[in-house]
Amino acid sequence: MARFTPKVVTANALIEGDVVYLTADGRWSRHHHEAELLDDEAHAQLRLLHGMSQRNVVVGAYLADAKAGPNGPEPTHFREVFRTRGPSNYAHGKQVELN
């Protein structure tokens, strides 16, 4: 039996297209460190279903690998790190905040 890797629920905001993360209190945040870190597979699946049911708010919800960090969950895969930085075509949104 494989060991479950901690996850966060992520999606894209339906109107703006921004990357968002499901928080423990059911909000969608644009900040990865505010996401609910899920370390139980069954609970993760339930939270994913909850996220997927909000079709009027988000699109493309899925579980992404994460780990506990000093300020909240941190992405573990380069794709998810990239998604936290926002669009790569020119500096706007999250990229402005990084500079």
Automatic annotation (TrEMBL):
Pfam families: DUF2849 (PF11011). It comes from the Bacteria. This is Sulfite reductase (NADPH) hemoprotein beta-component. The lineage of its organism: Bacteria, Pseudomonadati, Pseudomonadota, Alphaproteobacteria, Rhodobacterales.
